[in-house]
Amino acid sequence: MIDKIFEYLQNSPSPYHAAATAAAWLDAAGYTRLEEADFWNLEPGKGYYITRNNSAVIAWRVPAHAIGGWRITASHSDSPSWKIKTDTVENDGCRRLSVEGYGGMIMSSWLDRPLTVAGRVMLRTPDGLQTRLVHLDRDLLVIPSLAIHMQRDINKGHAYNPQVDMQPLWGAAGSRTLTDLIAEELHVAAQDILDTDLQLVTRQAPCFVGADREFFMAPRIDDLECAAATLLAFLDAAPDCDSSCAPVWALLDNEEVGSGTRQGAASRFMRDVLDRILDAVPHSAQAMHRAMANSFLLSADNAHATHPNFAAKSDPCAPVRLGGGVVLKYNASQKYTTNAISGAVFRAVCEKANVPVQVFTNRADEPGGSTLGNLQSQTLPIPMADIGCAQLAMHSAVETAAVSDAEAMVNAVSAYYRVHLRALADGTYTLE
Q1: What pTM did the predictor assign?
Q2: Interval 310-366: pLDDT, tens
Q3: How many CB atoms lie within 10 A of CB 104?
Q4: What is the dihedral of CA 10, 14, 17, 21, to 10 degrees?
Q5: Which of 24, 56, 259, 375 has fewest C-beta within 10 Å?
Q6: What CATH number should be reported for the domain whose range is 2-79+219-431?
Q7: Which H or E element spans position 162?
């Protein structure tokens, strides 16, 4: 299982690659790709998926009987990075790329490490415009630190200016440009590259750490660990899902910058897909509303573990440890959607599956960030719980998590898809 998660992390250097890797796994499992612009003819017992913007995916299986509810998990494909604004620029005998920060990140973690470029390009072809993914799989760039001799107080703290401190070194003056290398990689003419969405990528591969290899380090653990784990669970359990329930797996984009895009959680993407599924199968006049009332969503995005060097930064009432199991997240301001009802449902599912659960809450004086669930609830008014795997160094170029927590996430979500969950009344459920 951890090998599959490593594979997903390694094969997903950008949100576009994360969506393509998910699509490849779905293809291998027999799911049929659909396009939003096409007519949908859905057959009971079969699985389907669509993509949007090449960076978001929604997959589902059509139940054998009328759809009586949705069982959904949602995670996100993007991670904090540096978006490339222009091709190389020259100064002082060097070529640099011009980049701009995407999402909140620990800037210093990007310094003095091998970097490369990944993303998508738009090409002119004889048949029209075509999207191609690109990953220059080599040590290519570096963002070099300024020597300590020129900033003697660097170890007393430094306010990084992204326009000054964080522009990456590309090569010597006169070297080939980024466009040149992409054209060579894709075997196309440089003039046929019309536009790009590219970002910097750290080169470190996922690896085990710890005396007993109990932890692992990798780029993009937030949130591709949850994306991979929930997808593995969906592929494993969706065929066994409740006969009247439609299992759904979603990978959305742009969470790190607020989700306010057509492929983000604040859009109608998920709701439009669910409504369209019902339109494509026989259903009663009230089926949509009844299905919503009997639905549930897990918003899967990683959580902060209590840092052993900075334990005071965490809520002492809710310590979270690496290897402690799936994290259930609460927030009084509803940045996380978990409440007594949804928390109890998820705890009951995990109890049946013998999966350990731990709780995350912010310190009362440390406001936390938001995630997918509270934004998705604007268009999808169903009970939700926010869950995740514990990790350290969130939003660093390389993060750390526990092997056993990834396994716990797969087992918990597999059990969630298999359980017979029924809403008998508002706030009343049966769970078999």
Answers
A1: 0.96
A2: 999 999 999 999 999 999 999 998 899 999 999 999 999 999 999 999 999 999 998
A3: 12
A4: 50
A5: 24
A6: 3.40.630.10
A7: helix 162-165
